[in-house]
Amino acid sequence: MQTFKSLGLSAPVLEALAAEGYTTPTPIQAKAMPHVLAGRDLFGCAQTGTGKTAAFALPLIERLMADRRDVQPHRCRVLVLAPTRELASQIHDSFRAYGKHAKLRSAVIYGGVNQKPQAAAMQRGVDVLVATPGRLLDLIQQRLVDIRAVEFLVLDEADRMLDMGFIHDVRKIVSQVPKKRQTLFFSATLPAEVRQLAETMLRDPLEVKTAPQATPAETVDQSVFLLPQKQKKHLLVHLLKHEGMARVIVFTRTKHGANKLQRDLEKAGIRAAAIHGNKSQNQRELALSSFKSQRPPVLIATDIAARGIDVDQVTHVVNFELPHEPETYVHRIGRTGRAGFTGVALSFCDREERPRLAAIERLLRKQIPERTDLPADLPKADDAEERGPRRPASHAGSRGERGRPSRTKPAKGRRSKGKPRGEKRATAAAPAAAPAAGSKPRGPKKYRRAL
Ligand code: AMP
Q1: Please, which of 62, 85, 119, 124 could form a disulfide with 144 given CB 3.0 to 4.6 Å?
Q2: Which DSSP letter does residue 370 get?
């Protein structure tokens, strides 16, 4: 079996890893590190929680140490681009932790906060700069950062960067770094735009895939409750009180929904922090750090704010509402079950959300087991909101595998002619059948403002 030592890491880095409690390399680390050390470009398809940050940070620290150079003012040798502030600061923290005996200088740059400390950190130049694209371009334009001496360029969560509309910023940045460089490119999913971007940036890259595209970590135990919207908060309170949830992230779809749920939980005597795009950077950092120290143990988050959050030992993820895009479900549940720990993902699904559940199950190629042990004291559902059967007999994941699945015939007149079959059709008035095999249940792959 490979060890960090046999992969070529030196004593200062090994010592830092021992302090972090890492004993064995994860698969992506074992696959990628020797090639990054040898100077090769990398195209990595990796889920969250696979250890990909260390897979690029460790060999880059080694490369920097092996060839120490004085850095000019405002310049950096390694540039890491990340989509969100949270992810950028986590990557920066990782470089600092892994490189604590390596005597390297580093800085992190992101928007939403005063730029002065960031500009000051860049004044003497750094070995490693981690940045989000927008603020980085701002500082470059003001001549406070200079990326013309970059030797190593890393793009992390490239798919997220494209989803969030950073493509032009990323291209602009890439056009300013030297052509002669080593480039490492990571993405959890590989849509065509990501591949195209990668092709323009990489030279003869080694492709490393750690898991089939969008497969959630096998260490996450998933289940779904089918219940009306109005019962969801009561179920959540019940679960928080009775299921031994030590550290929970609850996902809502909107900022408003996150605030409301926080108030509802507090009314029920449960303290929770909330993190979403309307909160200031300071509030977000405070929420995150208090959650990390388990005071409170519940974090309510929207998807954008939660992207890349790396908190050790999140025991449960609750999907209070199912996301529009099935891939987002995979990202969400990847917040738990990380680095060898097991995790639990519970999803709450009302009638309107059933097509989303079917889309998720198609992506996963399996049915998520249903939990029917609802507490007895939930408020009564309206007639139209009754749970109803989960779906016709078809198995959402059986598309094309065993011929056409058997399907109960939908009652006549439930679908008006000419209207597309989509989420709006699956209202409480009509049973939410899983969309026909081969139909496209997904919405546009764009970053949604409402988040
Ligand atoms: P990442 O996929 O980079 O977000 O890493 C996920 C989590 O795994 C982080 O909390 C890391 O600290 C942790 N981690 C990374 N590599 C290892 C390793 N080899 N052994 C144990 N934990 C690790």
Answers
A1: 119
A2: B
pLDDT the model gives residue 427: 29
Going from the C-alpha of 165 to that of each of 90, 91, 140, 198, 253, the distances in angstroms are 21, 21, 19, 16, 19
Atom 19 (ligand 1) nearest CA: 25
**pLDDT tens per residue, range 258-272:** 999 999 999 999 988
Sheet holding 316-319, edge to edge: 220-226, 343-349, 316-319, 248-251, 298-301, 273-275
User: Exposed e or buried b for every residue in 160-191, given b needs 16+ CB within 10 A?
Assistant: bbbbbebbebbeebbeebeeebbbbbbbbbbe
343 forms bridges with which residues in the sheet? 220
Mean pLDDT, residues 382-409: 41
Q: Which two tokens stand for residue 177?
A: 């770094």
pLDDT higher than threshold 80 for residue 186: yes
Give the whole-angstrom CA distance, residue 24 versus residue 355. Answer: 41
Q: Is there an atom of ligand 1 within 6 Å of 51 CB?
A: yes
- State the pLDDT at residue 413: 35
| Cross-strand bridge partners of residue 251 | 301, 319
Mean pLDDT of all residues in 116-139: 97
Comparing CA positions, the residue from 107, 91, 70, 75 lying closest to residue 178 is 75
Q: Which atom of ligand 1 is nearest to the CA of 50?
A: 2
> pTM, whole model, 2 decimals?
0.59
Q: In which band, very low, low, confident or very high, does the pLDDT at 439 lie, cut at 50, 70 and 90?
A: very low
Distance from the alpha carbon of residue 155 to the mean position of ligand 1, in angstroms? 18
Domains of the chain: 11-209 (3.40.50.300), 220-385 (3.40.50.300)
